[in-house]
Amino acid sequence: MSDYVFLIVGIGCAAFGGELFVRGAVGTALALRIAPAIIGVTVAAFATSSPELSVAISSGLAGRSQISMGDALGSNIVNIALILGIALIISDISVASGTIRRDISAAVLIPLLTGFFLLDGNLSRLDGMLMLCMFIAWLTAAVLEAARQRNSSESGSGGTSVLSSALFAIGGLVLLVISGRLIVSGATAIARAFGLDEFIIGATVVALGTSMPELASLVFARLRGHDEIGLGTILGSNIFNGLFILSVAAILSPARPPLPEVLPALAFGLLSVLIALPWRNSGRIRRVQGVFLLLLYFLYLVTAVLLRP
């Protein structure tokens, strides 16, 4: 019974946390005179990637960094193919030119770089350091963009309190992170009780559970008309997972993952981002792309099951 309670409470925390976070993020962005997308792609992305970071640290210290690699790569596929696909089914999403230039470009390059580093079958500490440097360069570009937007703005939001908005955003993020942990714990135990295979549980329940913060933030951002926050959180989370999380795991303990399992994950991750690219000259991600993303996610699940040892 406690497993069902965990699941129900987790879903409730996701719903309430998503609403609080979007409300607080918008208010904070207005008060600081920066684009809400910057809040989503940096602060929110880091917070929603905390489950993956905890896995990276614990598995790296235990000398099993391949666990973190699988979690990070799998979460990236869930973020784009499943979560963004669901959001696009509702309606098209507009994308700012800065997001395309900085964040989507980084999301495309990450699986290519990871595949390049794995050509020798090993993700070494040197590879991890290089990935960490790339992450710092991307984060610096995002911070500089936020500073540029703030300096070019003539006035603030006209009385919006930074402190109260930030408290809303932080409280929402805390609830989102808690929701992911509760849902993973409850749903995994329920799935085991029904006799589901461990791999199937990891590829579906756990991956979706650790991506619940991104799902909740994107859904509530869409409902409140702030697509830039939800999309920024999704893209930022992928960049954090692909550069920061993997670099931490590799630096703590070099990984030698089985290429037959890693390469399909990299390929599906790259393909999902390519499918989600905005249509030329429109600056919009179309609903039909969401259909293709969902089909790709289910194809990934089938492939993962067929290729498992």
Automatic annotation (TrEMBL):
Q: Where is the Sodium/calcium exchanger membrane region domain?
A: 4-142, 165-305
Annotated InterPro entries: K/Na/Ca-exchanger (IPR004481), NaCa_Exmemb (IPR004837), NCX_ion-bd_dom_sf (IPR044880)
Q: Name one GO molecular function term.
A: calcium channel activity
Does the entry feature the keyword Ligase, yes or no?
A: no
Q: Keywords in alphabetical order, please.
A: Membrane, Transmembrane, Transmembrane helix
- Name its cellular compartments: Membrane
From the record, give the transmembrane residue ranges: 6-22, 34-57, 77-97, 104-123, 129-147, 159-179, 199-221, 233-256, 262-279, 291-307
Keyword Transmembrane helix (UniProt): yes
Pfam families xrefs: Na_Ca_ex
On the tree of life, the source organism's domain of life is: Bacteria
List the GO cellular component terms.
Answer: plasma membrane
**Bilayer disposition of the protein:** Multi-pass membrane protein
Tell me which Gene Ontology terms the entry assigns under biological process. intracellular calcium ion homeostasis
What is the protein name given in its UniProt record?
Answer: Na+/Ca+ antiporter, CaCA family
Organism the protein comes from: Chlorobium phaeobacteroides (strain DSM 266 / SMG 266 / 2430)
Output the lineage of the source organism: Bacteria, Pseudomonadati, Chlorobiota, Chlorobiia, Chlorobiales
